[in-house]
Amino acid sequence: MLIDSHCHLDRLKGAPDKASLDQIIQQAHARDVAYFLCVNVRQQGFEAMRERMATYEQVFLSCGVHPLDVQEGLDVAQIKAFANDSKVVAIGETGLDYFYANETKAMQQQCFEQQVALAVEVNKPLIIHTRDAREDTLAILRNGHADKVAGVLHCFTEDWEMAKAAMDLGFYISVSGIATFKNAGQLRSVIRKVPQDRLLVETDAPYLAPVPHRGQENQPAFVRDIAEFVAELRGEKYEEVAAYTTGNFFRLFKDAARLAGR
Predict the structure, then answer these.
(1) DSSP secondary structure string for all residues of 95-138
(2) What average pLDDT does range 17-34 have in this prediction?
């Protein structure tokens, strides 16, 4: 069994209605994907996402504001209310992105700090996006006592020092389709070093489709390709990777484990 630990089912162009989304989920099930974490990036979009995912027991949710969406504002009280929903298992996607939006650095930092504090308050793990902001990301996590709730550095693309520092705070490292790209040599060397008990797999669908699906819209079924790639890269069996990444997911996202009866 696999879990797509980070996807955006509500943003799939190939699933404009329930019938097409049903089909995408069925295609994922056919490739051993049993559960999905549908990640929120704009608090203005949370309610529509929640409504669309309401009938899928195998889909868990998060709530938060992405660093590239901070200009739309953050209402902490509203995010806290969203976090009370029974399907919400994490706070985020939050973090820092100085690569695409260095001009909003101060606003990103404030928004990130507030969401770290909220995660600690409501006792839910964090989903972190970080790009070109290693020192500030780690400083905000440390200063905000994020180790109390831990979380995941999703779609990891950083170096081993960043991975180790995050794991020292109790965080997990999530592998996306980027690991399959030709220019991902440094990332692959990091993935080989991450202990089994700290690794997750994800698609980040509809973005970043892995080889051999480059050029297509990414979808949760492709997490199987990522897991198989990780297994080959680390000299492990696919079944082993599927088992320990699933166990890691439910150990980190305890509310998801409860909902799944685990």
Answers:
(1) EEEHHHHGGGHHHHHHHHHHHHHHHHHHT--EEEEEES-HHHHH
(2) 98
